[in-house]
Each structure stands twice: as C-alpha cells, then as structure tokens.
Amino acid sequence: MPPETTDARIRAQAQKAVAPRAARWWLPASLAASFLIAVLVVQLQYGREEKSTVVIEADLAAPAASAPSAAAEAPSLAHDRVAESPAVIERKDAAPSELHYEVAPEDIAPELEAGADEERITTNGTRVSGPEQERKAASEMDAEVINPPAPPPAESAHLAAERTRIAGSLAKEAAAPQRTPEAWYADIEALRKAGRNEEADAELARFEAAYPDWLEKNHLLNR
Amino acid sequence: MDEGDVGAQLMLRYAAGDARAFDELYAAHRGALWRFIRRSVREPAASDDVFQECWSRVIANRERYRPEARFATWLFRIAHHCCMDHWRKTGRRDRRESMDEDAVAAAADESQDGPVDALLAGEASERLAAALERLPPEQRTAFLLYVEGGLSVAEIGETTEVNPETAKSRLRYAVARLKQALGNEAPD
Q1: CA–CA separation, B85 vs B6, rounded Å?
Q2: Distance (Å, rounded) from C-alpha B125 to C-alpha B122?
Q3: Buried b (16+ CB within 10 A) or exposed e, A12-38
Q4: Which of A5, A203, B36, B50 has the fewest Cβ atoms nearer than 10 Å?
Q5: ipTM of this predicted complex?
C-alpha cells in the first residue's frame, strides 16, 4: 500500500483542486475605488478650470478701486489666462472709469438673461457666476440704487446723497453697453459739433486715457 | 457509461466539485493501482512518485473525463502512461530482466494485499516473483492489468493501445511463462 504521507498529499491535492476559490472581493472593489477617484479628480480639475476662467465685464472693470483688487484676488494662473482672453481686451478697451451711459433697464435684461456661466464682479467687488448669480447681482445693484443702505446716524444728508449718486453711477456703468472706439470717438465729435466742447474735451481725455494709441494709429492717419 | 461503474459515477461527482467522491474513489482504487505501479516500476521511491503523478493527472483531467469506458480502464491507462514516462526518463525498462533475485524477493515481500501477492505468499513465491520480473514488459503489464487492475482483455488492449488480439496474446504468454516458472505446464 502507498505510504500514508502519499495518501495525505494526494487527498489534499484533490480537495484543493475543487475547493471554491476565495471570493476576490478586493478586485472589483479596487476597480470601483479607482474609477471613483478618477471621476472626482476630473471633476475637481474641471471645476477649478471653470473658476479660473474669470470673465470680467468691461464696464464693471472701470472702478479703479474694485477692479484691481478683484484682479489681485484672482490666482496668478487665472490672471494669466484672463490676460490672454478676449474679455481682457474688452476690459482694456472699456477702461474709462467715469463713463455714464443712459441705458434703459430693458436693454440690460437680455444681456443678463443671456449671460453664460461666467464669473463677474459686482460693484462691491464680490464674484458671481452663472445667470442666477447675475440676476442676483443685478438685483443687489438695483436694490442699492433704489434703496441705498441707510446712512449711519452721524452721517450727514450730503454724504448720503453722495453715496446714492455714486451707487447710481456705478449701476449705470454696470448697465452701460460696450462701445467701440470708433463709436466713442464719433460721439465725441458729435458733442463737439453740438457746441458742447467742454464735455467733448473731457470725453476725449478719457478716450485717450483708454486708447492711448488709437487716435494716432487710426483716426489721425485716416485724415 | 456502465450504470454499475461506481468509479465512473464517483469521478463525475468529483469533477462536479464533490471532494468526498474523490476520497471514495481513491480508497477503492489506491491498492490495485499502487500494486500495479510498484510491480511495473519496482523501485519503491520511484513507485511513490509515479503513483502520485498518476493521481495528479486524474485530478488535473477530472473535467475532461468522459465515462466512455470503465473508470478503471481510464485510470490504468493513465498509470500505464506514467510508467512509460518513468521508463523513458530513467531508461531502465530494459534492465528489468537483469534485476537480481534478492531485489525481486524484497519487492515481493513488500505487500501482500493483492492477487499476485497472494500467489507470491506461497511456497513458490520467490520463483513466481522472479518469473514476473523476468517477463517482457508488455506481457508483464498485460498480466498486472489483468490480475491487479481487474481489466478485461479488451480493456487491456485499450489501456496499452494495442488491439484486443495482441493484448490477449501477451496475456496468454505471460500466464504460460509464470506457470512454467511454478513448474506447471503452459496452457495451449
């Protein structure tokens, strides 16, 4: 008869051959975990890129105090991207800070309605993004214009009126449409023809500040 | 499949995953298979290896087993192939007839469980063991398959991959030589 050790070895081999394999739960679990992590990383990255594509409205960029501080808050990478984007060009074009355009509210509405998922900077410097936030920001601005915050008791009526005026001008600036240099210059010339030379000079000064080389390169050369 | 072939049924159950079926199968065939291999290979250590190799092949081929013949036939065919492989590896098949008488006697005394062992237990055991060792390998295999494995002539032919007539002839010569060794007259 074969040795008992041989018997034991053969029986063990036979049992091992048909023994159910241990459930490899870790394989699907690790695959699922990897997939989940990959999705999360992609989502995080995508969200970060969305935030970094800050589009600053040209007419909101004018206030010297708020716009630079907002730009300074943006990450350097985002800043670089913004600098390369057309929106920045528009912003540079519209740099004059004291422009006042009379625009009816209904002219603003389509722009607000059609607003894409872009971040914008409100008059108080906070960033908003998306149509919902835009509406919210617009309503905040309207609220500021219509119902300016109550001045502190110690504040005089003159200061309160000044705040209201500034808020109103900012709101108008926010609502003002963007003009091309040509249109702007045409307006200046129209003012001059109308005999409003002081206003025309003031506008021209702002125009030159906004487009230092435009007159030299375009208008004067054309003449 | 032969309905009465318990070995085949056990093998099918084992192939389906029933480990207990293998225990029954092993218990039923281990003795005969061991004796066949030991008398074919003759070296105890090598016999153990060949025996394990044989059962390893049974285990490995469990899912390919088809009960077209008796399980014993399938099992002993595997054992025969294992012995052939062993002989091929060691190149000792042709030397069996030169084996000394003491070794034959020692091998014969190792086990006294099977039909051949019962024959060898008698007075003429040494003569029979020596005669068995001297048999040509084919006749010896045919004789062991017939006596130890309980295979029919046809099954011996199937196991050793020869036609039944050749198997029958080998078996007849083997029996004649063994009888002659024991002092009897060889049958016609």
Answers
A1: 29
A2: 5
A3: ebbeebbeeeeeeeeeeeeeeeeeeee
A4: A5
A5: 0.72
Residue B59 C-alpha, separation from nearest chain A C-alpha, in angstroms: 6
Q: Are A175 and A99 in contact (CB under 8 A)?
A: no
Calculate ∠ Cα A97-A98-A101, nearest 5°: 110
Tell me phi and psi for residue B162, to 5 degrees. -130, 170
Q: Where are the beta strands (DSSP E) in A41-191?
A: 119-121, 127-129
A211-221: pLDDT as tens digits: 888 887 776 65
State the Cα–Cα distance between residues B82 and A83, nearest whole angstrom: 82
Candidates B10, B41, B52, B110: best to mutate against A (most CBs of A within 10 A) is: B52
Take residue A154 and report the two structure tokens written for it. Answer: 């110690």
Residues in chain B: 188
Q: Please provide residue A114's backbone torsions phi and psi, each rounded to the nearest 5 degrees.
A: -85, 5
- Burial of A73 per CB tally in 10 Å (0-12, 13-18, 19+): middle
Nearest residue of A to residue B35 by CA position? A1
Instruction: Convert A163-176 to b/e letters by CB count within 10 Å (16 or more is b).
Output: ebeebbbbbbbbbb
List, for residues A7-39, the tens digit of each pLDDT value: 899 999 998 888 877 667 788 889 999 999 999
The whole model's pTM is what?
0.45
